[in-house]
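FYI - complex with zinc ion, inputs then prediction.
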Amino acid sequence: MRNLICLILLGLSLTPAAYAWEDFYILKPSEFQIERTPGQRFTPLNSVSCRDRIKQVICLVDNSSSPNGPRKCLSGSENFAPPIEKIYDILPEKLQKAFCGLDAIFVESDVESLAYAGIIRANEKGEVEGSFIGVRRTLLERAYDATSVFGWKEQKAFGIVAPPFVHLPDGPRVEVILPNTLSALQYIFIHEIGHILDFANSANEFVCPPNETCDLSKWDPTEFGKMVPAANSFSSLSWKNPMYPQDAQRFSLWDKLCFYGCNERLTVLDMEGFYQQLGQTNFVSTYAAVSPYEDFAESFAFHVLSLQGEWNYRIQTPNMAYSLEKKWDVLFSKKSWLEAFYQRDLKYPKATK
Ligand SMILES: [Zn+2]
């Protein structure tokens, strides 16, 4: 996972190649090729509202293709629009606007994560021009409750293998009650839009310090490790460099934290120690501690959900209970950073296709 984090950074540092991982893609326009269904092709995309765009860009795909190559939207793609339109209707306007910049919402039948986001970088300055989101098909076919979905995901970090979205008794127990209590999709879309807004607005930003040279042309952990958070960036609140948290936020079990594509993982024996250690940091959730990018997307989701109304995100271990929405309430530096970010005149990707 740590290596994959750096692939994103390479993608951002003007190298010609595009990189991908399960949660985030950075593509060049030539790598994003989509063939829409006949019904979608007959409506010009620039004449529709952000909500109408959902059925224009929804794209059911088969397992043989990935976002960084030609993709064909299968017939019946439009049938997956209604559950997303339902989420759109309850999102704040600032997030609804992000749908106008989406080139695709891929419906995937075989992904390890719940969903992913991606951006299309169209020019040499690395400016974001287009964006897309991918989501697991089953999440659109059934309105899974947030407790099952996020409980299943949390337990994955402790090496528990269960069919989606089964929440077993032997790992940490999660209870998530969202405002409006629609489904897990509400949280997932807010998180993924958070990723897109992070990149479009440089919320996370790392720079090479003065009097230092950082050769980012290829993956070299020493070179990337020299990068430091830009002053006042979101990254500066918790991260020492793109790979590691600041010493005050780094805890011993952090080194084993991994959700997808892992060499090493936590086990259920680490559970009590892990949550006690995480509780001392300014990471709002387990997933937020994975990387600066997940830290932002998770913090963004907590900020937006708190604006939407009463909600709960609880984690229960045999010995302790943690209330994450209450933790967010006292993470003053991140909370005020997100409040100011959300008030900004935010930049949105413009769809390219
Ligand atoms: Zn994410």
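The radius of gyration is 19 Å. Residues 23, 191, 195, 294, 297 surround zinc ion (CB under 6 Å).
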